[in-house]
Amino acid sequence: MKKWTFSILTLALVLVLAACGNNSTNNSTAGNNTSAGENTSTNTTEPAPESAEPVKLVVGATVPHADILKFVAPALKEEGVELEVREFSDYVQPNVQVYEKQLDANYFQHQPYLDDQNAQNGFDLVPVVGVHVEPFGAYSKTLTSIDELKDGAKVAIPNDATNGGRALLLLEKQGLIKLDEAAGIAATKKDITENPKNLAFIEVEAAILPRQLEEVDLALINTNYALEAGLNPTTDALFIEDKDSPYTNLLVSRPDNKDSEAIQKLAKALTSEEVRTFINDTYKGALVPVF
């Protein structure tokens, strides 16, 4: 009887173990099926695309051009263009560095100056878009009216060809001198045909003209350098170019990148309504938008 009882218990134990084994196998199979389903789902999900790296533009500028560039930088960043502004205190290096590809573009000069620099240095720089005019003005520390200008007075003008000619043309418009008609914008002191006040002309690098005001009776100064020196062209200048000045300040680049998407985005930003408002509100006539 004991043997039968032992045999029955043994058989029951085997059946229980077999049942457990089957459940374990089924659970394992179910787990494997679930995992396979999850893997299939994961594989069909596209990875999130990485955002494109912003295109970097390095642009050289003088003041106030640099301030306008800084104003448009946030809007450009939203369009995928990271703008780096490098400020210069002279008119030479910005063109040299664009030509040598140290800069992508510059913003500081007008067309006559660009033409002269290309001709003098063998550059092939090109205008991208015109942005504003900076009316050229005459300043003095001692005169309150141009009528006070005495015979033999010292007059300082820029020593570069285009801005020197621009200064002489402005003096001619005021009736202070007469120039050879053939000279045009490239006029120099040699082209003065009449000088009734016997004015003594001193040619000085444009950037240091504001510092010469203590040494001369009158100085013809580019607006960017006047602003830098704390002069307000609309209130401090004895006389100034009118708004029809042909000396539009340009965004300039090279033939190889002029039509690039990043340069064109910058050109569009610089001629936006937001920039028009910024220029008018900030400079109040010292700079005049041309777009």
Give me a quick take on this structure.
With 291 residues, the protein is α/β, with parallel strands linked by helices. The protein has helices at 2-43, 65-78, 93-99, 111-121, 161-173, 223-228, 233-236, 261-270, 273-283; strands spanning 55-61, 81-87, 105-110, 126-133, 137-139, 154-158, 178-179, 192-194, 200-204, 218-221, 239-240, 248-253, 288-289. The strands form 3 sheets. Strands 2-1-3-12-4-13 form a 6-stranded mixed sheet, with helices on both faces.
List keywords for this structure.
disordered N terminus; single chain; five-stranded mixed sheet; globular; six-stranded mixed sheet; 291 residues; alpha/beta
Structure description:
There is one protein chain. With 291 residues, this protein is of the alpha/beta class. It contains 9 helices and 13 strands. The strands form 3 sheets. Strands 2-1-3-12-4-13 form a 6-stranded mixed sheet, with helices on both faces. It has a 5-stranded mixed sheet with strand order 9-6-10-5-11. Helix 2 packs across helix 8. The longest helix is centred in the first third of the chain and has 42 residues. Belongs to the nlpA lipoprotein family. Pfam families: Lipoprotein_9. It is found in: Membrane. It is a lipid-anchor.
Q: Order of SSEs, N→C?
A: HEHEHEHEEEHEEEEHHEEHHE
Low-confidence stretches: 1-45
The overall pLDDT, averaged over residues, is 86
Structural class: alpha/beta
Please give the share of residues in helix. 40-55%
Largest sheet features: 6 strands, mixed
InterPro entries: Lipoprotein_NlpA
Biased composition (Low complexity): 25-37
Membrane topology: Lipid-anchor
Region (Disordered): 25-53
